[in-house]
Amino acid sequence: MLALEYWKAVTADKAGFLDRVIALLAESGVKYCVIGGQAVNAFVEPVVSLDLDIAVATEDLASAEELLRRQFRVERFPHSVNVSLLGSDLRVQLQTDSRYAAFVGGASPRDVLGLRLPVASVEDVLQGKVWAAQDPARRPSKRQKDLADISRLLEAYPELRSRVPDDILSRLI
Questions:
Q1: Number of domains making up the chain
Q2: Could you tell me the end-to-end alpha-carbon distance of the chain, in angstroms, rounded to an integer?
Q3: How far apart are CA 144 and CA 41, in angstroms?
Q4: Residue 17: which CATH number?
Q5: Is 39 among the domain residues?
Q6: Residue 135 resides in a domain
Q7: What was the pLDDT predicted at 3?
C-alpha cells in the first residue's frame, strides 16, 4: 500500500477531503505551507496523524478561510481555523498565529505521506514545535508529542540542536 493510500485509510477520508482542500488552495493561488507533525514527517520517518496543519501567508488568510467555508465545515478558534468534512476523519488546521505566516516564504516542495506539498523549512518546522512545546495553554499530551517531534528532528538533524532552548533539551529523553 502506498503512503498516501495508507494515510487516507487511517483518516477514513472517503469523501476525498484531503484532495479537495489541496486542489482548492492550489486553484485559488493561496500561498501556504505544511507545518506541524506532517511537516516533521516530510523530514524524518513518518508517524501517522489525523491532522494536517498549515500556515497561510498573512495576505491570503482571510480569503483562504472564506474559500474553505464555502465547501467545508469551518470552525474558528483563538489560534487556528479548523476545517473538516463529513466522511473524513482528517482535520485540516490553518494556523492563525502570525509567527507562522513567515514560514511560507521559506517553504519548498517535499513529500508528505505520498503527496508533494509546500513544506516549511526544517528550521522553521523545529521552531514551530519549540513554540508549541512551550505553550502552557496546550494540553500536556500535545506538548509531549511536540517534544517527541523535536527529538525526531534532532536525531536526523543534530546540527539544529543549538536552536532548541535548554528548558526543552532537558526534557528530551
A1: 1
A2: 33
A3: 17
A4: 3.30.460.40
A5: yes
A6: no
A7: 77
Residue 126: which residues within 8 A CB-CB, separation 6 or more?
150, 153, 157, 160, 163, 164
In a domain, 130, yes or no: no
**Over the stretch 60-106, which tens digit does the pLDDT of each residue have?**
999 999 999 999 999 999 889 999 999 999 999 999 999 999 999 99
DSSP element (H, E) containing 149: helix 140-156
Would residue 42 count as lying in a domain?
yes
Whether the predicted pLDDT of 4 surpasses 80? no
Residue type, 82: N
Count other Cβ atoms within 10 Å, centred on residue 10.
14
**What pLDDT is attached to residue 56?**
97
From CA 65, how far away is CA 82, in angstroms rounded? 9
Q: What is the pTM of this model?
A: 0.92
Domain that holds residue 107: 3-121
